[in-house]
Amino acid sequence: MKPSADTIKTFVRDLRNPKRHSSKIIWVLLVVLLIPIIIVIPEFVRPANIANVLIQMAPLGMVAIGQTYVILGGGIDLSVGSQISLISLIASTLMTDSPLNIIAVAALCLVCGVLFGALNGFILKLFPMPPIIVTLCTGYFFQGIAFALHKTSGGYIPVALKQVLTANSGFFSVPFGLYVLLFAIFAYVLYRTRFGRYVYALGGNADVLEKSGIRIDRIKIKTYMVSGLLCAIVGIYLAARLRSGSARYGDEYTLLSITATVVGGTSMAGGLGGLTGTFAGTILISMLTNVLNNIAFRYNLQSTYYKDIITGILLISAMYFYRNRK
Amino acid sequence: MKGMLAPIRKLKLTQILRTPHAVGVFGVYIGFIILLIISYIISPASRTLQDFINLLKQSSGLGMLAIGQTMVIMTGGIDLCLGSIVTLVHVLTIGLMNGDPSRILGVCLLGLAVGSLAGLFNGLGITKARIAPFVMTLCTDFILRGLYMIYTKGQPKGILAESFRNLGRYRIFGMVPLSVLFWIVLSALFIFILKKTVFGNRVHMIGANAVCSTLSGVKNDRIIIAVYTLAGLLAAFTSIVLTMDMSAVSLNLGADYSMDSISAAVVGGTMFAGGIGGVEGTVAGALIIRLITSLLQKANIANWGKLLIQSVLILSVVAANSRKKRT
Lengths: 326, 327
Description:
The complex is a heterodimer of chains A (326) and B (327). The radius of gyration of chain A is 20 Å and the shape is globular. Chain A has a two-stranded antiparallel ribbon. Chain A has a domain at 47-251. Helices cover 75% and strands 1% of the residues of chain A. Chain A has 14 helices and 2 strands, in the order αααααααββααααααα. In chain A, helix 12 packs parallel to helix 14. Chain B has 14 helices and 2 strands; from the N terminus they run H-H-H-H-H-H-H-E-E-H-H-H-H-H-H-H. Chain B has one domain (57-321): ABC transporter involved in vitamin B12 uptake, BtuC. Classes of the chains: A mainly alpha (326), B mainly alpha (327). At the A-B interface, helix 6, helix 12 and helix 14 of A face helix 6 and helix 14 of B.
């Protein structure tokens, strides 16, 4: 079949108007970006590097799953970074070498994460405030507690936990495996369960959902709890990876997780988009980070500074691109 | 924009004091006085005029910056990049001046231009690209942070010209620093602009009901762009005034200012819902925030105590206001 002008036009229109679950444009963008990257930096596609990118994308990917839930429900979570930092400090402060203790502390961290999320949700339930303000303030609150625990990085994480959580052989690594597992679970919940439908409806039209007899507050609180749980997992992972906790570990994840979600086609207004787009958004950011590190290493630059700028521009252009939706 | 600054009615003091705030401007000032008395009880050593002037001086930077934040919040937005503007302009001013007195004017003008440009960029993104204000300004914050880190490579350099430092040391009547004077003048100016001019009326109107103001023929976009640009300009000006007083360049100068200015505006009675509030409350808000900071510094828990107290403070003020009916 010869592609006529019409089919191309339809394709482009489809790209500009992502359907509920698919966002083709981000995948197209990924492929288009990959070509010049491979030409300029052939090392990028070496198996070792690909495996590296997969490990690097795991923590961001996990945070972004939670962020996607919250944004789909019409909210936003600006406290993810501080939650991650605080969890990493709780873990590193309490852990000792005994296996029982490791499991207990890890469980406590997960409970704490869920509670942090629940706190966000409860404040939003009690007072009709914009979620930005609430999560910005709770974020500062968690950050404050984190600073009170440790001014700089510190604490102790047993070697065993690090070995378990960072184990890898070839393409398979524990962090990426964990990410895929969590992604599968939460994608199933979002796309195949009643709760998932309600999350979409909450962002799409909360009034209608409430009038159909659903307790929208509970759905909202649950989305924030999902975000908190995933932040806790990432907090434990980051603490284990560097064998210490720090009040600054999570800093970059707030903006990065929002960027991954929005670039992946989830609408800031809620109700549109989905986890598959976020997956692609996460790949995009990890790919760019890896390439940036490579270039920065070559020319002896500080890659984090450029990363800030590129993330900012990426998010602004994504928002600009999707401006006409809804 | 012609005639924007034309006064719409005569300025009466009673009108300034009788505003539809949730707490009321009086309440904020009474809160400040109570807090001041508490601080005097805690530390008798600070019961001097000199100490009070020091408090004014410490609050002046925040006070000027918070004027811009107040206007932004009144239009229903939020500006999270003011702190980065402060640091960027500070680093540029010191780095480019580098001890040469002939460059002072040029460098200051450049700083003001950079701040306004950042604000303009925010305004354009928010109006033309329809990006949510906090996302837009958060992105700008990261971009500016990247820029000043690249410019300084993490190790800022440069020294101030001696004549510029002398401006910072200058005391009117041997007591009041220039920064306090700037703060008073700017606050008075913006109280007047917001209360009594067409521009101020439109800022209120957009925050209260953007659709209504469009239907009344107001070009919302232009006002919003102007407000963000002014916020950027004021942040740059604040940075220059703060720089006068610095002996060395610091990358942390602006770190707290975004949060502090939001706190000052909100504590001062400006509501996130938009349309309600004003600079007259923000002045007291800035004083309260700085007084709390200095108390915490005396207790030596400033770095984390401030985060905890400020977050709870903002949340409780916004929560208290959120129950009230909008006027």
